[in-house]
Design goal:
The chain is mostly beta strands. The strands form 19 sheets. Strands 1-78-77-76-75 form a 5-stranded mixed sheet, with no helix packed on it. A 5-stranded antiparallel sheet has the order 35-34-36-37-38, with no helix packed on it. The chain is flat and about 105 Å long. The protein is 0% helix and 57% strand. It starts with 16 loop residues before the first strand and ends in an 8-residue tail after the last strand.
Length: 767
């Protein structure tokens, strides 16, 4: 039985082979022992080998059998029979461009080399002294000391071995560099000569595969895609220019710009030249300028430094524009929006046409991305301001710094500022925070605060040490300056003031913008973060306590028995008399509770009109994902935040599955699966269920037997096996499975079909 080979066609018709032991799969292979010989079974179930030698990107395997080498495809087809002295993989996988992928095997027999593809076709017999991959479409072979190449798909010899060397060219796509009599040329993959072997070298010039450089008699020039000379070889160096049809040429240490017609656009005058995306930074005598993509000098080399900045506020560094295969247009990262130009210790700004937008009046200019719009943070005489790229002043340079977001010293938070937040910019002065209205060009809050936070689009909360206040959107202080007090905007025109009295008591007051007191109580325990968020969507749970549906929850006003008290927008008390507890309203609904004994309350959901939406019958209601988990005694159910029943309260367990749109449900120690709409996927009849996110499969156990189910609820592997071990490889595939039924171990593929091997023993650690 040793060395048994099975074809795919006859696999399941074969009589079962009794093995000494079977081991679980770990990737492509599983260890097995047959007639006391340790072997490895391929995951197709069709091939046994003695030793794994190598595995490639496309799961092609090189293995050894009877001391001979062969190769197996992912499907289990023997693509190189086990008769060779050596077999090696030649494969490449490009995750961004599949056209660059290839895979074949190189064979060696009696000192000669050949090749086969992954379908088992012989590309070339082992008659060559060397075979190597060259491009995704051709391999190269050596015979009698000379190189040629062969089509990988058809095995056709495209070029007989006549060259001293042949290799992939990097100056033109799908092109081969050939060497003859010590000179190099270029050939197409079909063998057609593009450039005769008469040159010393070639070099990359154009990302769009249109031009390349060449060297002849020690001088450099440029050829077009078809090998025609467009710039004669009279220069010391040819490099990529600021445009795909432009080239930087250097002679005697000086660089100029020529076009694809050989016409000189800029004479040999620069001592330095480097790309900044689609433009070129040029230098002369230690000074710098800019040449654009048309080969025009838009900024003369008169400045001490120049930086290009794109629309995202990032600096465009010295790099050519590289296009992805099939890409359209030029990447934004490569396109400058403005140039930051230094002149001694001063910096100015130029646009992409070379027009000066800002004078050399600033000691520092840095990109400042504000609401996805590029601005410029400038420093003048030690003070900071903000300008648009057109030079227009947004914030005058009179401050110590600009602030966005939260930090330990001072914070400006504008999450709730609404659409107009783009019109405001926080600034620093002497370590204090102020606010500038960029639409009006006026400072609306002086620099005296450590914290500025928009509580809605009309009102701002301010803190200065222990003192707090409230301002409107114009910066007018409408409350505050009182020590140890606290203000919260609970609507755009309603404010709650928490005042700490000298006698140790606290008074909470609701008032309108004008200061008219609408409600006041020293028993109201208002806190801005005290709110029932059960019915709120996740996106709104960071909100402070607010009026919702015209009501504001009053906490602790009289006693716990009055936790059903609200205020309307006029300060009038609204009491839900039928309930002992009503939570904050959201979308017209609120959690409501009734006391049924001194130690027990029941909960449900009511609407603003006191109508019951979900009956007041639950012992508890909590969130589960974006839904609500209802508990009655030991049983659970699932409802939406609107009170719609998805699962009735009849399950002992309802839990979410991490990273999956399913719930695991349990009843009487049996489990099932539903989707997030409450639809049954697997019935509640399994001892256990676990979900495999990578495979989108469920592992199930029923009456002690194991199986596999799909996410549609269909059983792929019936739950009839005493043991089940999945493939432990790094790939997502869990098949083949090693299962046990009765006294026998055997393998199952993804369709549940058995492999023709069985054993009464599973491989142990000592085997």
């Amino acid at each position: 039985m040793t060395g048994l080979l099975l074809s795919n066609l006859s696999l399941y018709a074969q009589q079962q082979v009794v093995a000494d032991y079977l081991g679980r799969f770990d990737g492509q292979l599983a260890p097995v022992m047959i007639n006391r010989q340790k072997q490895w079974l391929h995951l197709s179930g069709a091939v046994l080998v003695d030793k794994l030698e190598n595995q490639g990107y496309f799961k092609t395997i090189i293995a050894v059998k009877h001391n001979a080498y062969g190769a197996i495809s992912n499907s289990g087809k023997i693509i190189a029979p086990f008769k060779y002295d050596e077999v090696s993989l030649a494969d490449e996988k490009d995750d961004t461009d599949s056209s660059k992928n290839y895979c074949f095997v190189i064979t060696r027999l009696n000192g000669k080399y050949g090749a086969a593809d992954t379908l088992g076709n012989e590309i070339c017999p082992p008659v060559y002294t060397q075979v190597e991959p060259m491009t995704p479409h051709v391999l190269k072979m050596k015979k009698d000391g000379r190189w040629g190449w062969i089509d990988i798909k058809t095995g056709k010899v495209l070029q007989a071995p006549i060259y001293e060397d042949a290799g992939k060219s990097y100056v033109r796509n799908y092109t081969i560099e050939i060497t003859k009599a010590g000179k190099v040329g270029l050939a197409a993959e079909d063998g057609t000569i593009i450039v005769p072997a008469e040159y010393e070298s070639f070099n990359y010039l154009s990302s769009n595969n249109t031009y390349f450089g060449f060297t002849s008699k020690g001088k450099s020039g440029v050829m077009d895609h078809d090998g025609r000379i467009v710039v004669p070889a009279v220069y010391d160096k040819c490099s990529p220019g600021p445009g795909n049809d432009l080239f930087a040429v250097t002679q005697n240490g000086k660089t100029g710009i020529v076009d694809a017609h050989g016409q000189t656009l800029l004479p040999l005058q620069y001592s330095e030249a480097s790309l900044m995306g689609i433009v070129m930074k040029v230098g002369k005598g230690g000074k710098y300028g800019v040449v654009n993509a048309a080969g025009k000098e838009i900024i003369p080399p008169l400045y001490s430094d120049i930086k290009a900045v794109n629309a995202e506020g990032r600096e465009v560094y010295d790099a050519p524009v590289v296009m992805a295969p099939g890409g359209k247009g030029i990447p934004v990262l490569a396109i400058p929006l403005v140039f930051l130009v230094s002149k001694g210790t001063a910096t100015g700004v130029f646009d992409t046409g070379g027009k000066q937008l800002l004078p050399f009046a600033y000691s520092r200019i840095t990109p400042f991305l504000r609401e996805n719009t590029l601005c410029l943070e400038v420093e003048q005489q030690g003070k900071t301001g903000l300008l648009g790229i057109d030079g227009k002043i947004i914030v005058p340079p009179v401050y110590d710094g600009l602030v966005n977001g939260y930090n330990s010293g001072f914070s400006y938070l504008d999450d709730l500022a609404g659409e107009d937040k783009k019109n405001y910019q926080a600034f620093l002065k002497e370590e204090r925070l102020g606010l500038f209205n960029t639409a009006t060009g006026k400072e609306i809050l002086p620099a005296k605060y450590s914290w500025i936070q928009w509580q809605n689009n009309q009102l701002l909360f301010l803190r200065n040490g222990d003192t707090t206040s409230l301002a409107d959107a114009t910066g007018k202080i409408i409350r505050g300056g009182k020590q140890y007090g606290f203000f919260t905007a609970v609507d755009t025109n309603r404010i709650v003031e928490t005042r700490y009295n000298n006698d140790g008591t606290t008074t909470c007051t609701l008032s309108d913008i004008a200061g008219n007191i609408l409600y006041s109580s020293n028993r109201w325990e208002f806190k801005e973060d005290r709110v029932t968020r059960l019915l709120m969507p996740e996106s709104s749970k960071r909100r402070n306590a607010q009026f919702s549906d015209g009501l504001l929850k009053v906490w602790g006003s009289y006693s716990s028995s009055r936790s059903n008290l609200f205020l309307d927008t006029n300060g009038k008390e609204v009491v839900f008399d039928d309930y002992s507890f009503v939570g904050d309203f959201w979308n017209g609904l609120a959690l409501a509770g009734k006391d049924i004994s001194p130690n027990q309350a029941l909960y449900g959901i009511i609407n603003r009109n006191k109508e019951v939406i979900y009956p007041i019958t639950a012992d508890d209601i909590n969130t589960l994902e974006n839904l609500l988990l209802v508990k009655k005694g030991d049983l659970k159910g699932l409802i939406t935040r609107e009170g719609k029943v998805l699962l009735p309260v009849e399950y002992s367990e309802i839990s979410s599955l991490y990273g999956a749109p399913f719930f695991k449900i349990g009843r009487n120690r049996k489990y099932g699966i539903t989707d997030t709409l409450g639809r049954m996927i697997l019935p509640v009849e399994f001892d256990d269920i676990s979900y495999r996110e990578d495979n989108k499969l469920f592992e199930v156990t029923r009456e002690g037997k194991k199986g596999i189910a799909g996410i549609n609820g269909k059983m792929i592997i019936p739950a009839i096996y005493d043991e089940m071990e999945i493939n432990q490889g790094y790939e997502r595939n869990i098949f083949p499975l090693l299962v046990k039924q009765g006294e026998w171990y055997f393998y199952l593929d993804a369709q549940g079909k058995p492999f023709p091997y069985k054993s009464k023993k599973k491989k142990g650690y000592d085997d």
